[in-house]
Amino acid sequence: MISWRKHYKTGLIAICLLLSTSASIYAQGDAKNGEKLFKANCTACHALDKQLVGPALGGIVDKVKKEQNLDTDWLHKWIKDNKALRASGDKYANEIFEKFNKTEMLAFPNLTDKDIDDILEYTTNPPAPEPAATAATGTDTNSVAALEMAQKQSMNSKVILISLFAIGGLLLWLLLKLRQLVKLQQTEELAGLNATRATSFADLYRKYSYIGKGVLVILGIFAAYGIWNWMMWIGVYKGYKPEQPIYFSHKIHAGENKIDCQLCHSSAKYGKVSEVPSMNVCMNCHRNISEYKGKYMEPGKDKAFYDGEIQKVYSATGWDPASQQYTGKTHPVEWTRIHNMPDFVYFNHAQHVVAGEQAIITSFNKKNPEAKIDVVCKACHGQVDTMNVVQMANDFTMGWCIECHRTTEVDMTNGYNKEYFKNLHEKLKKQYGSGTKITVDAIGGLECGKCHY
């Protein structure tokens, strides 16, 4: 009896240890916190449901346990410092390293054991996605109401139009009847007077030729002004927004995801021209982003549309997301240019983006307090971070540039300007007073040779 009780107690202890071990592997973390940590640290190389740079991590705890009989302690060591784990001679760690083309995973010594447990819980039991916002239902209701309103307005317009035609017909009939009455009541004296009146445009012109010539002169002046004004706006395409071969929403990239303009348009800071980014720049991110998971949806667009545009990027670069390799079969993208400076005009982006950055931002915000900007690019190109399709936001005429040079104050606190224009600054203070503001035109901003050479 004593021996049976002893074995019974031992069995209970063993079962409790087994349960506690299982509990340490599963459901010991916070899946919601793990989701945040996973997105912040892991999504550059991993997804739950498919291989990216590294393997799919959905159910990784069970997989490692079943295939290698390894527990979460091994995963903790791998995540914190996989290089040290491989250096210790761990067989499975080195197998993974070889399998994924010796691509070294980043070490995460900053993650606590609790953080890693939360991440593993997320890979084991990811929380259900939040229910979609009910805005779509509201939109549908609004659309139906708008359609009904439009139909009512259309019917009202038809009734008004028919009524106007009826009134017009009635008025015409009355005029004809009045004309008949006038003819019946005409006297011989009135008939003789009518015979002396002009009955054609030629008679009228001969009788009042001096008035006619004056009218023609005035019309000629208006016509000349109209032609001149039309010619002055040749080449001005404010509002121009062509369709591109691959749909690219600046609102999603620059607005929703806060990507800096110069991350893609890097030459704007260092060169004359702000180039169209190469597709390799797109692949820096989209190598690991194969589908759209953002909350923002442009009206008329859905997730399938955005996913299709990402596939166009892959086709252009020859990227195979399944094998995570380039095939070498590329298809150049023929982008439609929006901003195109004439050949006879010199414009240097670096000069404005670097030397003139603070001065331009300050000047723009003074003139447009309701639309303040935080990036110098917006002064010329508009609020690009709100545009789904980029458009030409300003006239970009010579007068538009000159007006900017006349009103933009030079930043004299800039170390370069302070030294280079020191003598000019002193001269202007003596001439106009100590409170003189130096604008761009004062340092040669209106010289013809600055822009035309």
From TrEMBL:
> Which Pfam family is one of those matched by this entry?
Cytochrom_C
Q: Which UniProt keywords apply?
A: Electron transport, Heme, Iron, Membrane, Metal-binding, Signal, Transmembrane, Transmembrane helix, Transport
Cross-referenced PROSITE patterns, in alphabetical order?
CYTC
- Signal peptide bounds: 1-27
Q: Name one GO molecular function term.
A: metal ion binding
Q: Which residues form the Cytochrome c domain?
A: 29-127
Q: Which residues cross the membrane?
A: 159-176, 215-236
Mind telling me what this protein is named? Quinol:cytochrome C oxidoreductase
Protein source organism: Kaistella jeonii
